[in-house]
Amino acid sequence: xxxxxLRDQSxxxxxxxxxxxxxxxxxxxxxxxxxxxxxxxxxxLACELVANRNPNWVGSLKDVCIDWTxxxxxxxxxxxxxxxxxAASSLFRVGITAPVxxxxxxxxxxxxAINTRALDPEIYAFDLRVxxxxxxxxxxxxxxxxxxxxxxxxxxxxxVIVAFNVLPFLGLAGDNKLLRHFGTGLVAQFCFxxxxxxxxxxxxxxxxxxxxxxxxxxxFWALVLHSVHSAGxxxxxxxxxxxxxxxxxxxxxxxxxxHIPFKYAWPVLAFxxxxxxxxxxxxxxxxxxxxxxxxxxxxxxxxxxxxxxDWEAERRARLGLPGVFGVAPVPWVVERVRxxxxxxx
Length: 345
Description:
mainly alpha
């Protein structure tokens, strides 16, 4: 009797090992919509570079592949359940955003390597033909040092708004519906915008048009010029990300205004968003169609991905899959510190 029992136990153990999914199967099974968006984004950039092969395309392809590899390595570790818990959550939140953000600073070289053209004349002609209006030209008569500095303050404040919206979500929010909606929509906002830059490249009205009044401001205008010329992608006008990202935050806050802090934040975000949108045209960075495209894309990303994450939540619950974003890293660290303090006491 002993030998058959041992044989059965051995067989059942072997069966369990065989039934355990491989690392690749675990990664694919656990991947979320936001993972696919980021992964496909880098794949599209790589394919565009290989297909066009303009000057310096090899160096740009290396940059894209490095970003892509960082993303894939993170997904293997997190979605493959090689690491779990707060470590996996922290790695995922950094790993899903850092490569996309890094790729923006590489677009200065990636965009010309994909498309050598600049469509400023066509974009300007489109605005005049369809809208019969170009804000940067029409508002030239209002240019003074004071108005330039006012709009430069809000244009530069874009970076503060992004930080104040993104960092609390990354560090403080657990894997709930709000975070999944916010994270998926925002990653889509940046990835879709970057890809559209490659299709409709241009420099902006400051480069294409002539104006009667020079833009002269103070400290904030100097900061804007420095940031654009030192770190900007230069041919990144359609759609306007300075319009799209703040609009995404404002609409997201309005949609979820029943929750705190959005109940109080959405009017402030809406006001700042309007000022930033005005600044993009007043300071001659964007054409009118760039703004409309940014507004449309932001609205789409709030409304569409809100429905998709509901479907994804049902699917993951049905299959028993782990959460998309995991536990909130900062509260977890704080709780561990508190426990350690109590143990020492």
